[in-house]
Amino acid sequence: MKYLCLVYYNEKTMQEKSQEEWDALNRECMACVADLTDSGHFLDGAPLLSTETATTLRVRDGKPLITDGPFAETKEQLAGFYMLEARDMNEAIRLAEKIPPARYGSVEIRPVRELMAQENSR
């Protein structure tokens, strides 16, 4: 089963890190991805740019409403994601514990709902 691991942390706290600390964390993340890939659990993932670069889109009455910034003001911001393959939630949790930024924020783990193609849908 697929699990999406959403990585959150406080961007302001992370911006206070030195370049050496930031580089070390990035190396840890790359090593984590390599280990998860080698074990067959890593499917996809990526870090995100800061929320300052975000745009939120809503469609109301068929018209797009665009707002600069993230969907909501929160204490922690979405920083990236890991898509993992795991037997069950327990294994997904065990794998997500290895995600380095979890030390600075949180990792939300959610099962992916598979959409079923409908035959003869009319």
TrEMBL record:
Name of protein: Dehydrogenase
Sequence similarity: Belongs to the YciI family.
Domain of life the protein comes from: Bacteria
Domain (YCII-related): residue spans on this chain: 1-114
Gene3D superfamilies found in the cross-reference section: Dimeric alpha+beta barrel (3.30.70.1060)
One Pfam family linked to the record: YCII
